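Progress note, sequence design subtask.
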């Protein structure tokens, strides 16, 4: 497990530098990338700062204090703009797993350079952890690199693979991780069951934000959890009841649009971080918390979590609960206003769906309605952001929608997104009405 030679040069440059700036993306992967790097920078006594961005655009480079630092690391963003970055700063490294166009650049660290799949086998935080590990050889750094990988859905079919798997094995050998198989829902070990399902992460179609459905399902398997009497936790249940619950959940998800593979993936490997507390004691729980704190752009709270400063946990939890509430409220409202447009279902969430919730809303509705969904939300500076979720062909849909427009977009077949100017929304909606869904 060695870093490529060109990255080794950045490792040496960081060693020589007094001050380092980390510019990162506002999600779990971005936050974890910054967090694992902070572990080594802190240990080496470097001055460092973390800036969290929604996206890196060429315009935003101008506003960043790049020249005030000896070295800059861009994590989970920047791969597309390596040439532009060069105009502003000399000593830098881009740790990204998105664009493949700069794979040859000595300024880029990308999973493909090590032969790993950038969507499933290593994320930005996986690579950042390796960079950080080169500096201080602390195995817990590798374990924390998994947090961001979990955030980018790299726990596929219930288990980490690729470079992430290498870290899991290292973590277990070092006594830092404990592995077992169980229901894999965030918060399952610390929160009461109705809450876990109501605010479920991943958001469970038909259950998230739907109290009646949650209590019905629990009662069907013999769990009386209705308030105020019931504050049942999963860990309170006997083995038989747990089995009935898991069976009922899988059946429910199959009936609400999930494929067999997706429904099975709610059972998976649990990665318990030995010695950690509360939400931080599993990789998925850690990921949920950090994602919410990152969306709120609070590196002052998420960075210390990666330094094992558990006194920041209460602040992080408070942000998480507020965040989850707002996401679930957005899902509820979206269910009421979703409209058919051609073969698609569309939510104009510009006034009711927060920027960060568009993907979650689109995923849940696309399962529940069994058709591709587009959710529009407001973005800064007169822009509209869209999230698309469905079964296939969505990156081609984005291409068709944006043809000839001054816009940015892309993604995969089942999840895609774009950003357009507000005045182009009508054109995009017209085009959407005439595109045949590939489902
Ligand atoms: Mn990422």
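Output:
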């Amino acid at each position: 497990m060695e870093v490529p030679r060109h990255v080794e040069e950045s490792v040496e440059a960081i060693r020589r530098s007094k001050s380092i700036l980390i510019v990162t993306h506002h999600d779990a992967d971005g936050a974890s990338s910054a967090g694992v790097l902070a572990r080594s920078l802190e240990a080496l006594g470097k001055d460092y700062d973390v800036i969290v961005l929604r996206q890196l655009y060429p315009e935003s480079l101008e506003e960043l204090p790049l020249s005030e630092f000896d070295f800059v690391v861009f994590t989970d963003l920047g791969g597309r703009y390596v040439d532009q970055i060069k105009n502003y700063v000399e000593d830098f490294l881009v740790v990204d797993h998105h664009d493949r166009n700069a794979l040859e650049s000595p300024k880029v660290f990308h999973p493909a350079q090590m032969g790993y799949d950038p969507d499933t086998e290593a994320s930005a935080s996986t690579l950042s952890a390796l960079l950080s590990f080169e500096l201080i050889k602390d195995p817990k750094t590798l374990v924390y690199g998994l947090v961001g990988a979990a955030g980018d859905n790299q726990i596929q079919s219930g288990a980490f693979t690729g470079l992430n798997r290498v870290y899991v094995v290292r973590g277990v050998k070092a006594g830092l991780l404990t592995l077992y198989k169980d229901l894999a829902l965030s918060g399952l070990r610390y929160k009461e069951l109705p809450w876990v399902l109501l605010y479920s992460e991943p958001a469970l179609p038909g259950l998230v934000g739907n109290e009646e459905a949650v209590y019905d399902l629990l009662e069907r398997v013999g769990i009386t959890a209705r308030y105020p009497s019931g504050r049942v936790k999963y860990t309170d249940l006997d083995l038989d009841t747990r089995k009935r619950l898991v069976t009922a959940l899988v059946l429910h998800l199959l009936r609400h649009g999930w494929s067999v593979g997706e429904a099975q993936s709610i059972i998976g490997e649990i990665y318990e971080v030995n010695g950690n507390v509360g939400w931080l004691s599993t990789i998925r729980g850690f990921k949920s918390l950090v994602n919410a704190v990152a969306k709120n752009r609070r590196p002052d709270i998420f960075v210390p979590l990666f330094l094992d400063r558990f006194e920041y946990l209460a602040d992080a939890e408070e942000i998480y609960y507020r965040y989850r509430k707002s996401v679930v409220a957005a899902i509820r409202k979206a269910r009421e206003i979703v409209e058919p447009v051609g073969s698609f279902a569309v939510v104009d969430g510009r006034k009711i769906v927060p920027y960060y919730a568009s993907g979650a809303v689109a995923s849940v509705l696309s399962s529940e309605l069994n058709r591709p969904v587009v959710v529009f939300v407001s973005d800064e500076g007169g822009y509209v952001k869209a999230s698309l979720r469905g079964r296939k062909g969505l990156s081609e849909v984005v291409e068709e929608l944006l043809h000839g427009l001054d816009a940015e977009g892309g993604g995969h077949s089942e999840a895609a997104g774009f950003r357009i100017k507000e005045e182009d929304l009508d054109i995009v909606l017209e085009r959407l009405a005439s595109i045949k869904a590939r489902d």
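The first helix runs from residue 5 to 16. Work on this subtask will continue into the next period as scheduled.
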